[in-house]
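Before the break, one more example. Copy the sequence into your notebook; we will annotate it together after we see the structure.
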Amino acid sequence: MDTRLLTTFTTLARTGGFTAAAAELHLAQSTVTVHIRTLERDLGVRLFDRLPTGARLTEAGRRLLEGAEDVLDAVARLRAGCAEDGAVSGRVVVGTPESLCATRLPAVIAGLRTSHPEVDVHLHAAGPAECVEGLRSGRLDLALMWEEEREYPDLTTEPVAREALVLVCAPGHRLAAADHEVTWEELAGESFFLLEEGCSYSDAFARGLLAVPGARPRLTRFGSVDAVRSCVAAGLGLTLLPRTTVAEQLVRGRLAEAGGPPFPDVSVRLARHRRRWAAPAVREFARELVRHWGA
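Here is what the structure looks like once it is written out:
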């Protein structure tokens, strides 16, 4: 079987559209159509339902997808084995919280570029749910997530760092000048701007607030760290974020630490698909990440 057909098939299954698959593969859309029809004819089954909204896998297509990914992984391993004496090269697509894109990862990419200049890293800002979906679909090679250990049957995760959390507000907020440890009861009457649901530490903080008897906190959720920081700096409320994401604003005086109960550090975990082979470029990025955070 021509592995080019399997590559086209898995790309179409992931993108859900002939136009998107053609663009990703740098092929004409008619070529993608021919590849899929050829594969369907060879196997004697229909692999996709062609719908106005896109291409959807049939039951036969879903059964083929797992085996096709195994075959393509095996081919990639063979090619890498033949070229293992050469320079490590290739593309690594990493899903990551927006906050890490701007704080931790630039140094990792700089270090990787020095040791392996032919490795090209693409960062995709994404929340936990999108990271999990991206790893499962093959759109992402690796993902970083702010969360404690969770069990995913098809993913592996490993801790690479722990980050301190800090409660912050505008410098003029009454809690910025608190001369005592602010209690959960005091916080439960405030307004908060938190990251979107699925962010483990934001969800845990929200649960803590709502657990206070009679609590009526005003909670607004955003998918953007910048949006959260801007609202808090404008004096509209408080937020809980990793210290690395607000360090610059604290130094410049745009934000201030608010007295509050102690918060446990949050874990940063590196996730990958259990069954999918990791190319040399992917492995080198992971090593550089561990080296950077362990420094």
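The chain has a mean pLDDT of 86. The first strand starts at residue 48 and ends at 51. Try to locate both features in your own notes.
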